[in-house]
Amino acid sequence: MATHTTAIAEESVVNPIAKREFLGILRSPKAFGVLLGLTLIFSVAVLIRWPSAGTVDLSGTQSIQVFRMFGYGLLAGVVFLIPAFPAVSIVNEKNDGTLALLLNSPLTPLKIYLGKLAGILMFSLLVLMASLPGAAACYVMGGVDLYSGIGRFYLLLVLLIVHYVTLAMLVSSYVHTADAGVRITYTVIFITALLTLLPAAFFVGDAGLIGTAANYLRSLSPIPVLTELMQQSSPGQRGLISQSTWPRFALFASVSSVVCAMWTLSRLNYRIFDRSRAQGVMTEDRSTGERLIRRLMYIVDPQRRKAGIPWYLNPVMVKEFRCRRFGRSQWLFRLVAISAVLSVALTFAAATSVTAWGTETIGGLMVILQVILIVVLTPSLASGLISGERDGSGWELLRLTPLSASKIVRGKLLSVLWTLTLVLFATLPGYLVMIYIQPQMVVQIKLVLICLLLTVIYTLAVSAAVGSLFRTTATATTVAYIIVIAIFVTPLLIWLGRDAPFGYQLVNAVLMTNPACAALSIIKTPGFEIYDLLPGAWWISGTLSVLLFGLFGFQVWRLTRPV
Amino acid sequence: MNKPSLSNDVVVQTHELTKRYDEFTALDSLSIQVGRGQILGFIGPNGAGKTTTIRILVGLSRPTSGSASIAGADCVTEARKIKRLVGYMPDDFGKYNNMRVGEYLDFFGAAYGIGRRKRMLRIDEVLEIAGATYMKDLFVDALSRGMQQRVAIARTLMHDPEVLILDEPANGLDPQARIDMRIMLLRLAEMGKTLIVTSHILPELARVCDVVAMITKGKLRAFGTVDEIMRDIKQRRTMEIQLVDSASVDTVTELTNAWLKNGNGESTAEPAHAEAIVRFSTSLTDAELAPLLGHLIERQQLISQFREVPTDLEDAFLSVAGKGEDAPLADSHPTPADNEAVEA
Hints:
Chain A has 563 residues and is an all-alpha fold. Chain A is built from 26 helices and no strands. By secondary structure, chain B is α/β, with parallel strands linked by helices. Chain B has helices at 50-57, 79-85, 101-111, 116-129, 145-157, 175-190, 202-208, 226-233, 249-263, 286-298, 313-322, 336-343, and strands spanning 10-21, 24-35, 39-43, 65-70, 73-74, 86-89, 163-167, 194-198, 211-216, 219-225, 237-243, 270-272, 277-282, 303-308. In chain B, a hairpin with a 4-residue loop joins β12 (270-272) and β13 (277-282).
């Protein structure tokens, strides 16, 4: 009897959702990949920085170098891999119909939420535990304090994990598809982690309101805190007088986590299933006056009936544009307009207020901004080109039409390429302003634009090819994001260690794998100007793109033929 | 609405069609023929091989052996021709987000190479046929199941195919929508389209189909018109003896069994005490069964009714599905060749 009572008590203590969520994540191949990948990263990060000489480094510089490598690697892993799980957690339950069952059970929304949160956090804890041997190795080398170094680093990671997990779950409660959850979560993380650093980097000498606001904005990113812990200067740091961003970031992450958690909790009820899909009144059915106003207000009216697809356009391409929100003309125009305005504003602001920077730094920042835009947009647009169709049974219908595999491939790739090229060329005004300031940069800018175009093509090839290997869009999007981000972040991480332990040759070779790095080198961004990356970077990215497009084409051909 | 007249002009034909996945045989020597303007009801439990057959017919799958053709075009070697001849509506709708119904149909029309002007007219035509004109400006992903089925029919008709293959078109529809769907199928057949329809809602099929193919475990168990299959099933019919009082159920059961044993001993009567009924299945004719009634009355049994349980397509299906693969019914049923002879 006593045993029976204990068993019941034990059962009631363990939240059934936490258990299921944790086991569910552990059983997925994705989790296995994450654990294996991160363990490898930690091992390699420590190993490549481990001192090989038989001398004792009393200054502790070597151990700090090892700790930096380990720290950046672990942070990158946590930022890019963990959010993939909570980003699909609620939306998958909603779409599979199990959320309705849970809400119909005696479990309260709080218990459901905490169960899901606990399951994901338990998995995150497992990831952190897998990194402990690496941290222990750093500590053993000496020079890194247990509490102020390693302890605070892990505290930062815990804060960050809770922050991103709650944020991703909030996103997941709003979206209608798993891949949208992944896409939006990564975009928000990208914005809070990287884009928030840019204003501070621009207004670095500004003590006024804008400068202060930029400095506060910088505190939203975990990177300044990490660089502080790694005893390095951080992007946007105010000269020698540096104020710790720790308290601000800790406050922001904690408040954000609580707000996101409460917000998500407020959505865990039957209203989560409501989906208003107002059809709107078609413009053709409105009065003449209303039609005139809409004609003036919209460049492309979303409520107008579309003319049929003309014979000269690939129907698959038009379909892709039409069924994507950002493919819709009115959205595309907005995106292009924002990019154009931003690029001009950036160049103008740099030219007028931060003249000490010079065009090289401004150009470098513009390239980085464009690369961020490419990295954020491309996997989101290209990874689901095939898996999206297979997910929603559209692939079967496409196979039934007389469309050839090559026409499908061309249509799908062109739909992404056009969007990205438009966005890329929208930033041309910024470069024109730059040429106006420094006319001798024409050739450099031409080369930069070729590099950026190649970056677009290369990223598209990677995203499309990787995405076509998976059946579900959510997995395809997650893997494509991870690979694309790895392609762009890895050379930068190696570049960070350009003085030691990596020599010039190795850094040059690694940077050559990415055309975006070549763009930074051409524009002579500080730190990149010494590397000679052309035409090697073009050849490498060009060849890889051709191979990856080949893989994508082969996948489409394989999937269209009768089995 | 009258059913379309049967035709001898064979449009869909399979011969010894077989599909194997390693050791598993999904389809085993399937031979059927469907004439122009006919509606074929394709019946079978889940995993029977219906979808495999359909996928071969529409060119999505290759048979291991045997052949299939539509309007003379081989389903394997002339896949591109087949795509223009066939309109296939799978069980899944295949929606695209953020697209309106008009745009959705425009895309499929363009994919089939229909010119823009003709396509715009065709969209209105097919929406009208499917009773979905009012849906033209609605978003595809916001449609209800019934609306989706109508749009799917419209999509299937866009390139004006000769043969329509509809997988579970009545699935998930409410009674009114089912009636509408039935009327639409008959209308399409009247237009000269040949239809192959799979459904689990058998009474629906019985009302519209000219020919029925029953398939289990990849083998054709029965093929013929609904009447022919019923006639065959009726060779063994279920009889019920309704008694006035349930107290005499056991006595009547014993008497019936004894009478049946004296006859040919082909079956055993079963008592249903709660209903005061004795039930048995038999192949005896009415004339042969009549003495049983006299026999029971002579023995002072109070009988209120002596009746045959009506048989429908569901019974036929259960009867066919209930038999193992060792006893294929297609042998005893009319073959496609027999059908032609009967029609002639």
